[in-house]
Amino acid sequence: MGIFCVKNLEKSELVCHQIKKMRERKKITLEKASDDTMISIKYLTAIEECRFCDLPQASVHKKAYIKKYGIYLGLNEKNLLNKFNIEENKQSKTSEEDNKHPQNKIKKIKIESVSIWIRNILTGLFVILFITYAIWQVQGILQPPKLVVYNPPEGFVTTLINITVEGKTDKENKVTVNGEDIMVDNEGHFSGQIDLSKGINTINIVASKKHGKTTTVIRNIIVQK
Collapsing DSSP states into helix, strand and coil, what is residue 46? Predict the structure, then answer.
């Protein structure tokens, strides 16, 4: 009768652990290993900590570093590279499976949906602001300028031979009284004196925008003899 023995097989030691264990066994510091192999400590540390993604991206470069480090430590380069190939393939498959996992797909879709939603909202807000600004600018061009005349009132009767014309408009407008320019201050107020003649005097106060729109107010003033 045959006898079957069950033997517990130990898991194969990872390449990174094997390399680190051999270096520590030989009591070699990372600094000395770096000097001897001309490989930076950053890459040696990445190899020993199984962070192969921190090595140069090309697989051939990763293998070259591992091979050189393994030979330096007296390890069998062929076995080392074979094990590395197996481990690298396993990691690639695991990564692909993670990407194919439904939950990961759902998370990715949710993130992309939120990003698109936010982008659409921002785009919509920008369009609304642009249209609002454009309408405001057009209205400002098409609407006639504001003009309020405080003095003199219509039909004012006086015995004086001059009078002060006062009023308010927008500060960027130009104001003329009977064709003569009057200074407009930073708040849009204007004031100026004009000469009158006996009898009925017609005063034309005109506010003009730079785009050509105008507003006119007429005042008839009577100068008594």
Answer: helix
Looking at domain 15-100, its CATH architecture is Orthogonal Bundle (1.10)
Closest by CA to 33, choosing from 47, 25, 22, 44, is 44
The tens digit of pLDDT for each residue in 152-166 reads 999 899 999 899 999
Residue range 147-223 in CATH 3.30.460.80: no
Longest dimension (CA), the chain: 151
Q: Tens of pLDDT along 112-121?
A: 778 888 888 8
In sequence order, what DSSP letters do the residues of 93-152 get, joined into one string?
Answer: HHHHHHHHSHHHHHHHHHHHHHHHHHHHHHHHHHHHHHHHHHHHHHHHHHSPPPEEEEES
Mean pLDDT value across residues 48-66: 85
pLDDT at 95 over 70: no
